[in-house]
Amino acid sequence: MPRTPPSAISVAIVKRKVGGLGFLVRERDTHPLVVVSDIIKGGAAQESGLVEVGDVVLKVNSTDLTTMSYQKALSALRGAKYGQRVTLLLQVREGFRSSLVTGFDSKGLHTTRRITEPVSTTDSSKRNGNVRTKAPTSSGEGLTNGFALPKPQAYDKPDAASVECSCIPSISVKPASSPLPAIPRESTNMDCSIARESSSSTEHANGSAMANGRSIKTTEMVSNVKPDAPATDERTTEPSDVVDSAVRVQFPIIKVAEHTVSVKKSPTPDRRNSSMPKSPSRDENASFHTLKNWETGERINDTLYQKAKAVTGCTRHKCIGSVMNPDHMSTDPRKHVRTEEQKIGVAVDFIKQYYNSMKRKNPEMEEKRLSEVVESIKMTGTYHLTEYELIFGAKTAWRNAPRCIGRIQWNKLQVFDHRHVDNTGLMFDAICNHLKYATNKGNIRSCITFFPPRSDDYMKDFRVWNPQLLLYAGYRQENGNIIGDPNNVEFTELCVKLGWKPKGGRFDVLPLVLQAKGEDPDWYEVPKDLILEVGLRHPRFDWFQNLGYKWFAVPAVSNIMLDIGGIEFPAAPFNGWFMGTEIARDLCDSSRYNVLQEVARKMSLDTKNASSLWKDVAMVEFNIAVLHSYQSDRVTIMDHHSACDSFMKHFANEIKTRGGCPGDWVWLTPPISGSLTPIFHQEILNYSLNPSCQYQPNPWNYHVWKGSSAKIKKPKPFKRIAKSVLIMSSMMGKAMANRVKCTILYATETGKSLEYAKSLKDIFNHAFSAKVVCMEDYDVSNLEHETLLLVVTSTFGNGDPPENGVNLAQNLLEVSKSEANREDVKQYSSIHNVTRRSRRLKREQSCSSVSRDDSANIAEAAGFLSNLRFAVFGLGSRAYPHFCAFAHAIDTLLGEMQGERLIEIGEGDELCGQEESFRTWAKDVFKAACQTFCVGEGVSSDAASKSLMGQDRSWSTNKFRVTSDIDDDVSPDILEGLSKFHKKKISLCLMNKTINLQSKESGRTTLLVQLDCPESSDIQYLPGDHLGMYPRNQPEIVNRVLARLSDDIDEDTPIQLQMFEQRTTALGTISNWVPDKRLPTCTLRCAFERYLDINSCPTPLLLKLFADCATNDKEKSRLQELAEGKSKYEEWKFHYMPNIPEVLDEFPSVKIEASLLLSQLHPLQCRYYSISSSASVHPGQVHLTVSVVNYNTQGGKGPMHHGVCSTYLNKASHGDEVHCFIRPATEFRLPDDPTKPVLLIGPGTGIAPFRSFWQQRKHEIENGTTCGEMALLFGCRHPEQDHLYKEEIQQAMKYAAITHHETAFSRLPDQPKQYVQHVLKERLADLAYNWLAEKDGHVYICGDVTMADCVNTSLIDVMASKGKMNNRTATDFIAKLKETKHLHEDIFGVTLRTFEVNNRVRTRQMSRRQKH
Ligand SMILES: Cc1cc2nc3c(=O)[nH]c(=O)nc-3n(C[C@H](O)[C@H](O)[C@H](O)COP(=O)(O)OP(=O)(O)OC[C@H]3O[C@@H](n4cnc5c(N)ncnc54)[C@H](O)[C@@H]3O)c2cc1C
Ligand SMILES: NC(=O)c1ccc[n+]([C@@H]2O[C@H](COP(=O)([O-])OP(=O)(O)OC[C@H]3O[C@@H](n4cnc5c(N)ncnc54)[C@H](OP(=O)(O)O)[C@@H]3O)[C@@H](O)[C@H]2O)c1
Ligand SMILES: Cc1cc2nc3c(=O)[nH]c(=O)nc-3n(C[C@H](O)[C@H](O)[C@H](O)COP(=O)(O)O)c2cc1C
């Protein structure tokens, strides 16, 4: 193949005083020497968008640089005058071509854009096979919701050598005078429009052009000029490393220095009767095409057509609009072979489309993927589409299918990826699954099944020989009559030759004839239970049903090839649902079942007289019968009016979102009532975009038979096949289901959600291909290509996402906002609004009668996630006011983006039956998913459910072991070990000292902890940030665990946890013990002291393992009972709150191996502390305010439990190592403007971050900053016991770092309890209202969540009373404060009155459950 020569363009830019022309150049080693090496940001070139890096400068105004020395060429460039237009002739970099297009911007001004694309030649010149056309038939003419379905039989493509299309609008281009000869048009691969139009435009030297008598000054580049910029010299660069490859001398020149835009007034005659051309009105010189709606008079512009590559076959002198198989919609592998360059061109274009489609851009990934694809094509001649690309490609091919009327649903296509199959048996399995999924008991769903793509040898193609998966046979009789469908006579005869036994009926479903790897095809009977048919009857004519007409429910086209980015899929059956007229034509067309006359006679119509319109009357009644029958049987169908309305909606959407919508008017207009539908009146452009659906020749026309007979492979006996069908059907569930992907997203703070996500994966892997992904690792742009998404997440803060869910939450909000064009959601903190809105929405929906699955809703536009099935499970605690709020927010957002909820959100309350709720939900969602995807038939639900009890992942002696016999017995130091274990960068601080802030009388301990941060520690923070700390379990409790281990291992020798691994390799199965990556090498003592949580109550899964290790029967059965995780477990857990040694004490017969605990215990989590110092005041130090946790279990009567971290800090000595990290709390910072007033509210340790605030303020005041007012509202029991930082606060007040201080004392003798929320209302109401409502002030709340909620309520009350608002307005006001980051919360959890709060909520929940 000759290489495509590079093109050149002529552009004009005004040279500026600053930045000159706005680009840098370097020298090449071949003439012409000057190449653009960089574009200056904001300069003339960049703003014009007309110059690109890699362009070779051929001419500057009239000076030819092609043979000039580099220096002279530079002088010529420099010589151009400032403030004047400089015309540059630029040679586009090799492998690309550029065109300049003029269109309108959003303000209606015309703009010129340069479009540079990889060169991809059309292959029109090669397509000149013999034309064998047959009369078109009607079956499946539009497959309403599927891609367009033509009915031709044997047809090769018409000669497409002369391809000047007069239907394509164009841009104003004309050959520029060039120093180099232009190549002849025929041999170029330019858009025919460009080549043709180049001769028809009228150029005016002064930069304006005349068109249709109207002259418009153009070129955006001129209007972009800023002539008053100061002068500097133009810059040049040294040659860079990049050297252009040799440039060919021949290339076409396109000049668009001047453009014309015509504004044409279209006359409005009756379209059908006028002598006006019926083609759409066109602006000869514009880069858009104006299309008129003759019914409404509305005009729209199509610009998308410019992306079309394939030529349509229409010429200046003929339109092939009614041809069944036009060249641009057909591909014949015998003639159609892409060159490497073409492959790269199409692939690059597709990958760009894919990345462009993403809601969130990722240029690095795109760049990487592009080079990967190009590299792969160069190395192997092809590339592999990722699954997401395949899904995007399939949907886009549908979106691009000009003949399909049901494209509004394009985004709602289920893709089954079977690119891995290698035999017809597996193809058959896949098709059965396809039919089952699509049929869905009549509620038809669109789907597509992909078989392997074409290799470099089309004779190895996979093909489905059937034109449609379901077809009725047509039997030719000796007398020439046909029984059955005349359309399928040829294919029926082929089936018979293959061994299929004809049944002789009118409606016999033909077998599936499948070809794998180019082998002779096998045939398979379609299992009866997969064929849904509808017997036709009429709502008024009882006799109608006796005529015995019927049709099948699923129209599934199987002979169309999908071309996705150059990867061709000759076998990719797809389906939509029927439009009524299709079935009516299948039965009534004279070349088909031809029953119209029979019906008309039954209706007593005058069939002899055409002008009686009997055909029309009968046809309408027939259509009524079809619609009535399908609707009565609840099988999806669409009437042609609704279909047209939906198309018009789609058309409008597409014009808005893509700038155009290709459409084949001839096909889109329904066969009856044409002018009664809106499409009839709409001008539409037809063009072909990639990805595309292509006709292809019937395989039997060129298949080379390999069987003993030269023609026909020996047929498989029917019985054998029937049996194999049975076997395969039973296997189908498993084999097919594995192909439906399921993504399980989780976000967690303390690890439970991850555990649940893993169990979910275990159960789903019984029927799906499931993977678990953490939200922080998930790219939200993949969402639209997901099929099945499960979300498991907890909620933290005060209704916030866990830290690893924050980004996804924000991204999801952004995407949903852009989808819905919504302004009301600004940031995550408004998530409660999302949830609130959702609840309102649900209420509203439940009042409306329209259901999502109604076929009436088919006409609705498919939303962003309309292809997604999802379900959400939330973990939380009802002790928090915003129970499972984050899970609810995710559930709402996915629903709002039109994802389909498989089942209602599940909620797991940690105070009451969290595990049990999860297991019930998981079973339900698994069942619902199996039903939805028609999978899991062969799956035992018991076996699947067992995985929820952790059996897939649990411990056994043979699975894990602990050994001290290790190659490398050097344990990593604890800092490194912790960093690896928690996958986090952890720093080392040293304990300086702790001071008890409580008085001696108090009996409680609140520590001021002062840590030293060595310079190497990486500890840098701002007031408001958190310190995360990895604590240490107390030696006493560790010793109690060690004492119970049955292993004979020294607790202070380094050990390794190992796992038994079995791998199947080419050499057989290899088994060995491999280190378990979870735990670093360390001593047993260290493992229990530093890495594992031995303080929390064991989970039911762990108790189950304990039960297995119990030797006493009574203990075993009690443990088994608890391990069920039901109410017995809940009661036991809440009453005893037992830690691991306490459980082991309760069950002394349990023989515990170290490997069990090492492999099953949860990691010892970090604890967070709000930093209590300002780094400006205490450089090199970080201070904390820590309340030491001590409590008695069993409602105060049980043993004393000590908080792990607070006790660890309480016992730490000077110089002890403390492992920690900083967690920035960006939402809890002092206002950027220090003059804004701030109100701080925090009882007890809630004062912690405020100390950092007042220290910072004091520091700033000392350094001359003017700071605004700061009020501190603190709460404690008694002024003499726990008024934390009393003296320091007084000091800060002296400096006016704190300007107001109020205290709420809760335990003053003979005084009523006072909490901060009371004092706020009683003493600070005026101040709060004034600061927050009038002075743009900020309020900060810190500490316990119940307190925070009460303070929120008080704030609402204050706003309502002082601002004279009603409660709702006041509530919205406070929500707005949150959203605008004026209300900040730092929530520790349930810390105040933990037992009472939890007990209250739990008791309420338990009694509620018992009632149910
Ligand atoms: C963002 C954030 C900031 C924080 N800032 C601070 C801070 O500045 N200062 C501070 O002191 N704390 C702060 N905390 C709390 C802190 O992280 C720890 O939770 C706290 O120190 C207790 O940890 P621990 O390891 O000592 O106790 P743990 O071993 O974790 O024990 C605590 C657990 O014991 C149980 N429990 C506690 N009291 C009772 C009771 N009366 N009855 C029954 N069960 C009970 C509860 O299950 C509780 O979860 C903050 C928390 C968060 C999330
Ligand atoms: N994760 C945890 O479980 C965890 C973490 C940290 C601390 N804690 C526990 O919390 C306690 C210490 O906390 P602390 O020093 O910060 O506070 P605190 O001294 O217990 O309480 C501070 C003040 O807040 C009051 N208060 C109680 N309930 C309130 C409510 N709903 N709204 C407003 N104010 C309320 C208290 O009053 P009254 O007490 O008089 O009612 C007291 O006056 C310790 O018992 C510690 O064990 C637990
Ligand atoms: C500081 C803190 C804040 C919390 N905030 C909420 C909340 O606002 N809403 C809620 O339902 N649960 C809240 N919880 C409870 C957790 O969601 C619950 O413990 C959950 O089981 C943790 O799951 P995870 O391990 O997957 O993170 C909070 C817990 C803590 C410690």
Structural overview:
- By secondary structure, this protein is an alpha/beta fold.
- Helix content is 31%, strand content 18%.
- It contains 37 helices and 52 strands.
- The strands form 16 sheets. Strands 30, 31, 32, 33, 34 and 35 form a 6-stranded parallel beta sheet that branches.
- Helix 16 (752-764) packs parallel to helix 20 (914-932), helix 17 (806-820) packs parallel to helix 19 and helix 18 (831-847) crosses helix 19.
- The radius of gyration is 38 Å and the shape is globular.
- The N and C termini lie far apart (76 Å).
- 49% of the residues are buried.
- The model is unreliable at 1-5, 121-285, 709-738, 822-830 and 837-861 (pLDDT under 50).
- Bound molecules: flavin-adenine dinucleotide, NADP nicotinamide-adenine-dinucleotide phosphate and flavin mononucleotide.
- Residues 1006, 1187, 1189, 1243-1245, 1275-1277, 1282, 1306-1307, 1315-1317, 1346-1347, 1350, 1388-1389, 1391-1394 line the site of NADP nicotinamide-adenine-dinucleotide phosphate (NAP).
